[in-house]
Model the fold of this input.
Amino acid sequence: MHEFLEFFSFADANVRYVTLGSVLLASSSAVVGCFTLLRKRALVGDAVAHSVLPGVCLAFILSGTKNPLILLTGALVTGWLSLVLIDYITARSRIKEDTAIGLVLSVFFGIGILLLTAIQHSGNAAQSGLDKFLFGKAASLVGEDLVVFSVVALLLLVSTVVFYKELMLLCFDQAYARTLGYPVRALELLLTTLTVLAVVVGIQAVGVVLMAAMLITPAAAARFWTEKLTLMLVLAALMGAFSGLAGAFVSYTAPAMPTGPWIVLIISMIAILSFAFAPKRGWVSRLIKQRHNKYQILEENLLKLLYQLGELKQDFYTSRSLTQLLERRNIPKAEALKGLKILKRQGYVQQEQEAWVLTTEGQKRGQRVVRLHRLWELYLTRFLELASDHVHEDAETIEHIITPELEKKLMEELGFPQLDPHSARIP
Done:
């Protein structure tokens, strides 16, 4: 508890620099990463991250100093050049984008390693710590770095706000944006530049190896929680900021732990939780929905079966044994019994010793399922001209998902019919 209070008091200047730097880097990268993800160019971040290393090395060789502004300028040039090369190779050859990314990434990174090795053997004392761009070292951030990163992070966020509508169109409907007269090529170059800037400001915290995760992971996690781009940007920024803050805290409480990898680890944990437990897109939610749909279909099939048995003699409230039901429809006995018990709890059937009988509500629901089934069969035969003996299986599926609005539309389109293709009455 003492360490927690001490950390958030920000009394130590180094703690302030590391924490604020990590939060700025993570949140700004996450915002730009949303547009990269939506354009299905997630690997571009990895290519840029590996391509900035030769720029950092060349900037150091030419300037002889580790001034963050100079190094980031060099990184920006080679990072931007790598994306231009990827686009050029993809447009002017038969090589696909993923192959072009792999080629550019490996060539630029190889050149960067060669230059870094040459610098390390040059005897220049000023090169100490330059290798931190490979794996990152957020703990080495100082006030001068924080000023540069703050300016770049602010530039990224302001650009996103100012060009939000244009970037949104670029991501979702590029053809429509061109039709409206927007300069699509210029917007692509803008997004390219923002992506490179986001990567460039993040490499000192997490390094070129892990930077792609900082760009894409918060965006991927946020995508699971919402369908709205504005909310997605906010969520991604918050997730990135939290991971930066938590990574700095872990590094503070356990000095042997590096900040950058912990930032990536924490945002990855957030992403995994999002993949699992997001309300609509999470796999747990999907499993629950699938289970619900499975039992809904079983329930409606049982109610339809009881209704159809009642139709034979127009007696819907006579009890039917489980054997009678299973003779009419091939349902596993244990599954059918479970479905009947669920219907009993819901008030749609009642149990009379070893037999089952529809309630008034059960009869109404069963009647609706039968009506939907027969309406769909009639629709297929009348409008799609399918043979009447080829429509049953399709109707068995569709009857469970027709909404009341669609039911009304079907009735109107078919002219409120009385009989289905098999001359059975539509209830």
Summary: The radius of gyration is 31 Å. The chain has two domains: 16-278, 286-413.
